[in-house]
Amino acid sequence: MKYRHAFHAGNFADVHKHITLIALLQALARKDKGFLLIDTHAGRGLYELGSAEARRGAEASSGIGRLAPAEGQPPEIGDYLRAVRELRQEVRQRDAYPGSPLLATRFLRPQDRAVFIEAQIEEHVALRRALRGHERVTVEHGDGYERIASWLPPIERRALVLIDPPYEDARADQQRCTLAAAEALRRLPNAVVAVWYPIKLERDSNRWLEALATALGKPLLCGELWLHPRDSRAGLNGSGVAIVNAPYLLEEGMQTWLPAVHRSLDVDPPQGGWSTRIVG
Ligand SMILES: C[S@@+](CC[C@H](N)C(=O)[O-])C[C@H]1O[C@@H](n2cnc3c(N)ncnc32)[C@H](O)[C@@H]1O
Q: CATH homologous superfamily of domain 5-279?
C-alpha cells in the first residue's frame, strides 16, 4: 500500500468528511445513552501541514486554509474550526491538523467509547502515540473491514461506523465497503454507517451508490461537495459521504453548512457545488 494520508491532510475532502463526522457525533450525543464509534481506516491521527509530504501537493491550502471563523456561520463549521484551533494550542503546533481520531475524541462524552483501526504499522504507531492518555479509546493494528465483526453489537447497542478507505484500488475498496457495511447492519441494524467516497467521474460514483443501497436494502443519505465539474478528469473532483440510518435532522443541518463550506472553498469563478440527496 502506497497511500499516505499526510499528502492529503486538511484538503477539501477532509474538511467535508470531518465536519460530517462532527455533525454525526453531535447528533448521536442528543441521547444520553453512550455509543461506540468504530473508525475502520483511522490514519495517524495528527498531521503537520508544514511537513514535506503536506507541502508537496499543497492540498490544505484549498481546504482548511480557506475556511475561517465568521459571524453567523453554521455551528457545525464553528465547532470544527474550534476543534482544530484547540488541538493546535494543545500540541503547540500552528500547522497541526487532526485526523478523524483526534477530532472525534474531542466530541465523545464519558459514556461513549471508540476504536480506531489502522492497517499500516507506522501510521498505527503514530496514532497510538497521538492518542496516549485518552480513556475509553482502543487503538488497533489490523484490517478495519474485518475488525467490524469483533466489535458489533456493542453493549451500548448504539454505534457509529466510519469507513474511510484510500480507494487506491477503487473497485476492491468499493466491494469491501459494501460487505463491511452489510455485516455491520446485520449485527446491529440501527448502526449509523458513514462511508466516505471520492467523486472522480460522477457516473461511476452514482452507479456504485445505487449498488450499495441495493445491497444494503436501505436508503443512503448522500452529502456531496465538489470543487471541479463532476465529469472532468481533474482527479479528485469532489467528496461524498453516504450515510445509512442517518440521524434525525442531519440532512437539514447539511443543507445549511454545506453551501457555506462551498462558498468558502470554491474558486473564482465557481466550478463546484454541493448537494444532499437520498439514494435507494
Ligand atoms: C483516507 S485515510 C484515513 C484518514 C482518516 N480517516 C482521517 O479522516 O483522518 C485511509 C487510511 O486507511 C489505511 N488503510 C488502508 N487499508 C486499510 C484496511 N484494510 N484497514 C485499516 N486501515 C487501512 C491507510 O493506511 C490510511 O491511513
A: Vaccinia Virus protein VP39 (3.40.50.150)
Q: Beta partners for 224?
A: 240, 275
Would you say the CB of residue 119 lies under 6 angstroms from ligand 1? yes
Does 234 have pLDDT greater than 90?
A: no
CA distance 79 to 230: 29
Question: What is the Å distance from ligand 1's center to 233 Cα?
Answer: 24
What's the Cα-to-Cα distance from 11 to each of 15, 206, 256, rounded to whole Å? 6, 22, 21
Ligand 1 mutation pick, 100, 106, 118, 140, max ligand atoms within 8 A of CB: 118
Is 120 close to ligand 1, i.e. is its CB under 6 Å away? Answer: yes
Average pLDDT over residues 44-66: 89
Task: Check pocket membership of 196 for ligand 1, CB cut-off 6 A.
Answer: no
C-alpha–C-alpha distance, residues 145 and 195, integer Å: 12
Position in ligand 1 atom list of the atom nearest CA 5: 2
Q: Could you give the CA distance from residue 160 to residue 233 in angstroms, rounded to a whole number?
A: 33
Ligand 1 centroid to residue 43 C-alpha, Å:
5
Instruction: Determine the 3-state secondary structure of 110 from DSSP.
Output: coil
Q: Decide: 124 and 115 in contact? Cβ < 8 Å.
A: no
- Which amino acid type is present at position 198? P
Q: Can you list the alpha helix ranges (DSSP code H) found in the chain?
A: 12-28, 52-57, 75-91, 100-104, 121-130, 144-151, 170-187, 202-216, 250-265
Which residues are the active-site residues? 164
pLDDT band with cut points at 50, 70 and 90 for residue 130: very high
